[in-house]
Every structure is written in C-alpha cells, then in structure tokens.
Amino acid sequence: xxxxxxxxxxxxxxxxxxxxxxxxxxxxxxxxxxxxxxxxxxxxxxxxxxxxxxxxxxxxxxxxxxxxxxxxxxxxxxxxxxxxxxxxxxxxxxxxxxxxxxxxxxxxxxxxxxxxxxxxxxxxxxxxxxxxxxxxxxxxxxxxxxxxxxxxxxxxxxxxxxxxxxxxxxxxxxxxxxxxxxxxxxxxxxxxxxxxxxxxxxxxxxxxxxxxxxxxxxxxxxxxxxxx
Length: 228
Known about the structure:
This protein is an alpha/beta fold. It has two domains: 2-96, Translation factors (Elongation Factor Tu (Ef-tu), domain 3); 107-223, Nucleotide-binding domain of ferredoxin-NADP reductase (FNR) module (Rossmann fold). The chain has five helices and eleven strands, in the order βββββαββαβαβαβαβ. It has helices at 76-82, 118-130, 150-159, 176-181, 198-210; strands at 2-10, 15-22, 33-37, 49-53, 63-68, 89-96, 107-113, 135-142, 163-169, 190-197, 218-223. The protein has a six-stranded antiparallel sheet with strand order 4-3-6-1-2-5, with no helix packed on it. It has a five-stranded parallel sheet with strand order 9-8-7-10-11, with helices on both faces. α5 links the parallel β10 (190-197) and β11 (218-223). The protein is globular, with a radius of gyration of 18 Å.
C-alpha cells in the first residue's frame, strides 16, 4: 500500500515522528511493526527498506513512524526519510510482530529505554480508546529530560487510574531497586515487557531473571542500530 506523509513532528532534539495516511483500510495490533520502502540514489548497504514500530494506536487511523536521527552518521534510508515532504507517498507493507498485550486484565510493568517507548505509546492509547482498564506501571528511562511523548504519557496518567508512569533520567539507571520500587506484589504475578536498544534490553532481562522472575513472564522488543 501507499502511505502519504501528512506531517513531520519534532519530538526531541534527535527524534521525529512522521504521520502517514494509508491509501487503503489497514488494521494492526498495538505494538506491531511495519516495513517501509523508500527508493533513493546511492543507497548504503542497509538498503531501501526498514521496519519500524507503529507508534500510533489503531483508532488513530494514521501510521506514526517515530525514530531517532544521527545527522552526521545516519543511513541513507534515514536521510531519505527525513527529506520527505508533506504530500509525498512511500510504500508500506508487511505488518508483523508479537510484542503485544494479549490479556489486558493481568498486571504489567512496561520498561522502556529511549526510542523503546514507541510500542507503549500505541498500547496505552489503545487501552484508553477502548475504555479498557489494565493495571500498568511504566518505567521510562532516558538520557536526559527531553523525553519523547511526555505530554501524551502525562495526559494518559492523569486521566486514567490504571496507569502509573515513572521517568528515570540519567545518571539514574533502571536497575533492580527501581524495578522493586514499582513492584508492590509478588514478582511472578506480574508480566514484564522490556523495549529499547539491544544492550539495554539484554541488561534489564538479566536483572529480571536474577530477581527470579519466570522467563515466561518476560517479553522483550529489541531496537537494532541504537546505542544504549
């Protein structure tokens, strides 16, 4: 399908969202990802295709692509993406992914690092749109106070008793003590989702396993190509 760029939004100093309108009806589950193809001159070895988490909830009726940019060392694909203007169309295809919440009536701790917040934006908005009231605590780690989607997350928290948000800004890191402070029940009665750069996700998963969290209660989503 073709998706038309409606607008580009600066989310932080390094992060932008691209809001696309599909040319046909499309459905997805919050937390899934989609492939984009942008033909461009002299593509590097990463090519003309890339997949990104859909950061929008299905009820928003648009596909939101949110990503970080390294304007000096970034890929040719990212440069071509950034150069898109409203009204331009590109190809999108292949919605996939199992990083979704199948049973909203269990207890969840969602752990995000940096750009790893994108699937959680979709999930939390999806629950709000549907009037579902899960039990969720979000732990969101970032390098600085320039937090992606902070306005949306704060609005969701203030309007929904089922959501608690804890921002963890460096030099503080998400560790065992931070997780414990956000856990007021038996550890294995909770499901833990971890999303972010690969190194961060591996580290948090190791922390959870060392806390004797059952591996079946841990789900992870790696974002390749990003530093911690």
